[in-house]
Automatic annotation (TrEMBL):
It catalyses: an N-acyl-D-mannosamine + ATP = an N-acyl-D-mannosamine 6-phosphate + ADP + H(+); UDP-N-acetyl-alpha-D-glucosamine + H2O = aldehydo-N-acetyl-D-mannosamine + UDP + H(+). Homodimer. Homotetramer. Homohexamer. The hexameric form exhibits both enzyme activities, whereas the dimeric form only catalyzes the phosphorylation of N-acyl-D-mannosamine. GO terms for molecular function: ATP binding; hydrolase activity, hydrolyzing O-glycosyl compounds; metal ion binding; N-acylmannosamine kinase activity; UDP-N-acetylglucosamine 2-epimerase activity. The active site is at D575. Pathway: Amino-sugar metabolism; N-acetylneuraminate biosynthesis. This is Bifunctional UDP-N-acetylglucosamine 2-epimerase/N-acetylmannosamine kinase. Residues 7-23 have a biased composition (Basic and acidic residues). Transmembrane segments: none annotated.
Length: 781
């Protein structure tokens, strides 16, 4: 807190120094006057004093620690605040930490959870008993009032520079109100989110009182900007609890923790975690849902850990229902008031399902892929991963029981919607940039900030939204960090192993290395995109059938192992489709509604964009353009058929023809390098021979260009795109022949369609990255 400097009044109401000058009033003798100096000397003395004063102020500013007060009200917000508190404590040269504990932390019925703060070796500066018991609406209001009575003395004594407040609890509203009225800067965590109850109103009210914001998702950030908050004071940090849970959930002793809470006979993924809180705007219905949930769980007959609800209005009625059902004595149930966060992570991570309406289900559980059943309206509007099944109108036991049948025992891809494990470093860096000399009064941005404005200021955080791209080719395995603008920040290349086990091991090793490097390169990885040959089910992330170039690569679920290892969402698609997506985002297809991309490389493939969407087909074999038949009696193709475009125009087909000509001693012409071994002959030698006038080579290329052109004419007559893009190493050699065939053989209405060659150097990697970048930045809920 910056205090105004001014002259202090003494007990008589006089300013310091005034009594010295009026010595007759106090009986003191007057000081002798100053020695006379010439004007120039006085000027230089004043300048020297001003420089000394400025230097001293700068020195004090450089050495002064930021005094941060973290206030925690309950077990839930401590799990988010603790990582920040540890980060502040680990930087004693930069920060001075003060801890205030209030709310349900200090209530025995809720586990006296302040003890876990003491066990974490934090010095609690103040404990405030602020809860008025009653667990109804009036008690919540009285608790806010009691907190407002007690907080001023504490804040005046601690004099923090900034107060860190979390979330949407009524205790937090009291904290923010007191700090704002006492001219203390406020950093609000997890503002801008939507959860569908009175919590929304409280959360947004705290956001309006707060001076700075650290939010978890891009959507929350946009909500804050729409609420006229200054975008330069918003940090998209992610959820701090993810820093701890992503680092700690892989523990060797997790089964010991599970057995400690649920008994020795419980198995991994064979128990349920239940956590349901009251909805203060609809208490009667939320208690009914709680009763139906318990009935469904009793009938479902699985080991279940039930946590007591929070202290909101209606919790007392929910506890009565739990005891009426005999849950605390039931052999399948264990009812507890509190579980330490590190152990709670293990319990949620390895559960068969989580049920209730806790934000943990829609936030933290997604990081593990744990199935979640969300009951009622409490989390309406929250961003969720695939793992959450919503039962909005949970009005019957059968409906909840059916949801348990659908979800129990499933595993989903890990989601990082709410964080990537690096929130605390961002928040600490953000705190260090706060200028305590800037005006304390908030300014609001009217009208709302335009959509191209972003929240991070370059001085706050220098991170690039990026994707991890994986390209599985017949020869090489490549991984790249790709920025939002299509720049390949770093690329990794290894030979593609021949077996499934070694290939998956290498993929995970390269991806892990890239994720680690991304942190040092200031790149935030949003997800992983995988481009591979063969037929792919992108909905399930499964490679159905691979090309003959990649062995042991059919019926492979590639999404799950990568997602589990990296805790990132994963997208998978065919390399031809990825090339089309690359053109759509970064190449000639940008802004084009309908176009076709044809890859001309070792094989022939491609992708079709229709009405701005990629076409996959009913069995995911749409756009197998290389296997369009252009002749009934043509050469044999690798697919087993004859006369396919690939059998004429692919790099392998051209290489086969080049070897045939070489064997017949018809390939080499004057000006070519001697080819002593047939194994060294490639399609490039055929192309060079044609350029040097070899008529046999020219005929092969002419036939290949004709076959490709006829195939593309068939595509034009089928899907009628407005543009054809040729990609791959042979694209430049085929552009003119294909355009010529279109002019000769296409319908008049299709003859004007343009054929361009791609400008993209890495279409497979860029296409894999575009799956991530497009989806994660346009998600709408």
């Amino acid at each position: 807190m910056i205090r105004r400097e001014g002259k202090r009044l003494n007990k008589g109401g006089e300013k310091d120094g005034e009594r010295e000058r009026s010595g007759s009033r106090s009986g003191l003798t007057m000081r002798p006057g100053p020695i006379a100096r010439n004007p120039h000397e006085l000027y230089y003395l004043r300048m020297q004093r001003m420089r000394e004063k400025t230097d001293k102020m700068e020195e004090n500013k450089a050495t002064r620690k930021l005094r941060v007060c973290v206030a925690t009200c309950n077990r839930a917000d401590y799990s988010k605040l603790a990582p920040i508190m540890f980060g502040i404590k680990a930087n004693p040269d930069e920060f001075e930490l003060e801890v205030v504990v209030l709310g349900s932390h200090l209530i025995d019925d809720y586990g006296n959870t302040f003890r876990m703060i003491e066990q974490d070796d934090f010095d609690i500066g103040s404990k405030l008993h602020t809860i008025v018991r009653g667990e109804d609406e009036a008690a919540m209001v009285e608790s806010v009032g009691l907190a407002l009575v007690k907080l001023p003395d504490v804040l005046h004594r601690l004099r923090p520079d900034i107060l860190v407040v979390h979330g949407d609890r009524f205790d937090a509203l009291a904290l923010a109100t007191a700090a704002a009225l006492m001219n203390i800067r406020i950093l609000h965590l997890e503002g801008g989110e939507v959860s569908g109850t009175i919590d929304d109103s409280i959360r947004h009210a705290i956001s309006k009182l707060a001076h700075y914001h650290a939010c978890c998702t891009r959507t929350a950030e946009q909500h804050l900007i729409a609420m006229c908050e200054d975008h330069t004071r918003i940090l998209l940090a992610g959820c701090p609890s993810y820093d701890k849970l992503l680092a700690a959930h892989h523990r060797d002793d997790y089964m010991d923790i599970i057995r400690n809470w649920l008994g020795d006979n419980v198995k991994e993924h064979d128990y349920i975690v239940a956590l349901q809180h009251p909805v203060t705007t609809d208490i009667k219905n939320s208690v009914k849902i709680y009763e139906l949930m318990l009935d469904a769980l009793i009938t479902f007959n699985k080991k279940t850990l039930v946590l007591f609800p929070n202290i909101d209005a209606g919790s007392k009625e929910m506890v009565r229902v739990m005891r009426k059902k005999g849950v605390e004595q039931h052999p399948n149930f264990r009812a507890v008031k509190h579980v330490p966060f590190e152990q709670f992570i293990q319990l949620v991570c390895h559960a068969g399902a989580m049920i209730g309406n806790s934000s943990c289900g829609v936030r933290e559980a997604g990081a593990f892929g744990t199935p979640v059943i969300n009951l009622g309206s409490r989390q309406t509007g929250r961003e969720t991963g695939e793992n959450v099944l919503h039962v909005r109108d949970a009005d019957t036991q059968n409906k909840i029981y059916h949801a348990l049948e659908l979800q129990f025992g499933k595993r989903y891809p890990c989601s990082k919607i709410y964080g990537d494990g690096n929130a605390v470093p961002r928040i600490l860096k953000f705190l260090q940039t706060i200028d305590l000399d800037e005006p304390l009064q908030k300014t609001f941005c009217f009208p709302p900030v335009k959509e191209w404005d972003i929240s991070q200021d370059i001085d706050h955080i220098l991170e690039t939204q990026s994707a991890l791209a994986v390209d599985l080719g017949g020869t090489n395995l490549r991984v790249a960090i790709v920025s939002m603008r299509g720049k390949i920040v770093k690329k990794y290349t290894q030979a593609n192993p021949k077996t499934y086990e070694t290939r998956m091991e290498l993929i995970l090793k390269m991806c892990t290395e890239a994720v680690i490097d991304a942190v040092h390169l200031n790149c935030r990885i949003l997800g992983v995109g995988v481009s591979t040959g063969g037929r792919v089910n992108p909905q399930e992330g499964v490679i159905l059938h691979s090309t003959k170039l990649i062995q042991e690569w059919s019926s492979i679920d590639i999404r799950t192992p990568i997602s589990d290892a990296l805790h990132l969402p994963v997208w998978v698609d065919n390399d031809g489709n990825c090339a089309a997506l690359a053109e759509k985002k970064f190449g000639h297809g940008k802004g084009v509604e309908n176009f076709v991309t044809v890859i001309t490389g070792t094989g022939i493939g491609g992708g079709i964009i229709q009405h701005n969407e990629l076409i996959h087909g009913s069995t995911f074999c749409a756009a197998e353009l290389g296997h369009i038949m252009v002749s009934l009696d043509g050469p044999e193709c690798m697919c087993g058929s004859r006369g396919c475009i690939e059998a004429y125009a692919s790099g392998m087909a051209l290489q086969k023809e080049a070897k045939r000509l070489h064997d017949e001693e018809l390939l080499e012409v004057e000006g070519m390098v001697d080819l002593k071994k047939a194994e060294s002959v490639s399609a490039i030698h055929l192309i060079n021979a044609a350029r040097l006038g070899n008529r046999k080579a020219e005929a092969v290329l002419r036939t290949a260009g004709m076959a490709l052109g006829v195939g593309i004419v068939n595509i034009l007559h089928t899907v009628n795109p407005s543009l054809v893009i040729l990609s791959g190493v042979l694209a430049t050699h085929y552009q003119a022949p294909v355009q010529q065939v279109i002019g000769q053989r296409a319908l008049t209405s299709a003859q004007s369609i343009q054929v361009l060659t791609s400008d993209l150097e890495e279409p497979a990697l860029l296409g894999a990255a575009s799956m991530v970048l497009d989806y994660t930045t346009r998600r709408i809920y």
